[in-house]
Amino acid sequence: MDTFKKLKEFYWPYKKYFFLSLFFLLFITSITVVYPIVLQQTIDNVVLADQYELIPYISGIFFVLMFIKGIATFYHQYLGDLFGVTSVYKLREALYDKLQVLSFKYYDNARTGDIMSRLTQDVEGFRFFLSLGFAELLRIVLLILISLSVMFYYSVPLAIVTMAAMPFLALVVYRFDKRVHPAFRKIRKSMGQLNTRVQENISGMNTVKSLSREDFEIDRFSSSNDHYRQKYLNTAKIWSRYFPLMEFIGNVCAVALLAYGGYLVISGGLTPGALVAFFSLVWYILGPLMNLGFIINLFSQAKASAERLLEILDAKEDIVEKENAISQPITGHVTFNDVTLTYTEDDDAALKNISFDAPPGKVIGLIGATGAGKTSITQLITRFYEPEKGEVLVDGNPVAEYDLKVLRNGIGFVLQEPFLFSTTIKENIAYGNPEASNAQIIDAAKRAQAHEFIMEMPKGYDTMLGERGMGLSGGQKQRIAIARAICINPSILVLDDATSAVDMETEFKIQKALKEVMKGRTSFIIAHRISSLKHADEILVLEEGSIAERGTHEELIHNNGTYERIYNIQYQDRKEIMNTAAL
Q1: Residue 534 falls inside a structural domain
Q2: Fewest 10 Å CB contacts: which of 54, 106, 299, 567?
Q3: Mean pLDDT (whole number) for 372-378
């Protein structure tokens, strides 16, 4: 129950719905136990006493009881669902809020499908137990206690005989719980893996089809699906093993009741009506006890789900704001002082002793092999990660001193593969600045060389985009991303391989847009093409997390180093073509 206690803050504020539901449940349970008593009175005082004129009155009592029970059942179920739905509404919001503040380090090891499974199926499993499980458990307890009280009233010896099987049934239920909970946790984990497989396949469908890997993906999904099936079958085996045993114990108890109860009736120690009522009451005990397996099932699923939800809620927030964080807008002066960054303890350092200074308006080019540390530098500026050594300064202050929203609102990103949302072009451009006017949005699009093609769209700026910008070319997506960066009017601009995946004509248009955008801003250009950054004020050549060379384009191409080698490789084909043309 510790797991449920940790989530108490989400459901306890709505306890009034729960207790009102319990009030009606108590009423329903009491009426339920009245049925055998009325039956006993009918047999002993009406049928056996030849008082048949009382039957209409007894029938009327039954009708009234059923009517009242129906109304009470409605309010019990409605209030129970209100309790569960309202509780998980707040829980789901808390989970989503937590996902927004977790650092990139968390998402480096997380899987999208698994997170989605937790926010949907695990939340729903927890809700179902809140709405039904708690109340059903209390219904079982109330029904057993009230039934036992009536049974002891009718016959103490017969009640004791009936209860003799209870410890054995309780032991089986306890052992069942110990086995089924780990099994359900494995099922939940397997379902998360299955969702991840589906999510990755759908997201990468273009790659799958272009490489003709459909059969491979089908096999991978089949393997994950079979893994889920096996986990579920293992749980089914546990159910199949324990439930027949529970039913057997219940039936033995019923046989003992009939045998000893029949003897008492023959010997005059019990009336026939009391024996019939007793038999009904015993199933009010045995039935709920055997149904306890269903409640344990719900509890085990809910507990497994709650544990997975707590893993998100309890996840460490690596990036935490200070109480008196700096809230004034940044001007864009970036300084790295002997910065070292390691993503995980087992990995080599992504950055080693990086130092440079970028005053406002300066353009810094970053070039190097994949994994050399180019993107890591920009992610430290935005404080997506924390360096374990050295410090990153913005306007002379450590980035850790800033309000995160202020810091990040002052930095505009244009990525190699920009992410566009399934909404209008206008809302995509204004995503970082929701208060932007139409004039600001259009101005940003014009400066990004995007206005012309947007106006050719069916509804212009109000055109709805498909998922991830489906329907737009790579160059059009890039220019909308550039417009989005312009719209927030950032002091620092990060261009992460913004033109590497487009054709030469589109690259020319984007470069033209970027030159306009970079005026007066501190800019970081990450590129593999020298043509994208040769105009930079300073170029940093990175190798295995360290700065191997630094200088302007003109200085570096005469430095006999890595940059000159990259330059010669990239321009060799062009020189050969020009020489061939000259001949």
Answers
A1: yes
A2: 54
A3: 88
The sign one gets for the Cα dihedral 328, 329, 331, 336 is positive
Judged against a pLDDT cut of 70, whether residue 314 lies above it is answered with yes
Q: Smallest Cα–Cα separation from 418: which of 485, 492, 345?
A: 485
**Which candidate, 523, 501, 508, places its Cα nearest to that of 416?**
501
Q: Which SS3 state, helix, strand or coil, does residue 148 take? A: helix
Place of tokens 């339920």: 32
Q: Is the distance from CB of 158 to CB of 278 less than 8 angstroms? A: yes
Please, which residues have CB within 8 angstroms of residue 243's CB and are 6 or more apart in sequence? 290, 293
Structure-token match 């045993």, residue found: 245
Structure tokens at 12: 């306890």
Considering the domain architecture, whether residues 387 and 263 belong to the same structural domain is answered as no
CA 558/CA 537 separation, integer angstroms? 16
Instruction: Kindly state the tokens that stand for 448.
Output: 């990004």
**Does 29 fall in a domain?**
yes
Show Cβ contacts of residue 423 under 8 Å, excluding neighbours closer than 6 positions. 464, 465
Residue closest to 296 by CA, chosen among 127, 166, 178, 120: 178
Q: Where are the alpha helices (DSSP H) in 204-324?
A: 205-210, 214-267, 272-313
pLDDT tens digits for 437-472?
999 999 888 888 888 888 988 888 998 887 666 678
Residue bearing tokens 């926010």 = 119
Is pLDDT at 212 greater than 70 in this prediction?
Answer: no
Closest CA to 507 of 542, 533, 538, 485: 533
CA end-to-end span of the chain, whole Å?
85
What pTM value is reported for the model? 0.69
Nearest Cα neighbor of 399 from 497, 489, 492, 496 is 492
8 A C-beta contact, residue 387 and residue 353: no
Lay out the sheet containing 492-496: strands in order across. Answer: 411-415, 492-496, 522-526, 363-368, 538-543, 546-551
Based on the fold, state whether residues 301 and 345 are members of the same structural domain. Answer: no
| Structural domain that includes position 384 | 328-410+522-583
- CATH code at position 578: 3.40.50.300
Same domain, 155 and 214: yes
State phi, psi for 368 to the nearest 5 degrees.
160, 175
For the chain, the domain total comes to 2
pLDDT category at 581 given cuts 50, 70, 90 is very low
510 in a domain, yes or no? no
Both 204 and 341 in one domain: the answer is: no
Q: How far apart are CA 253 and CA 260, in angstroms?
A: 11
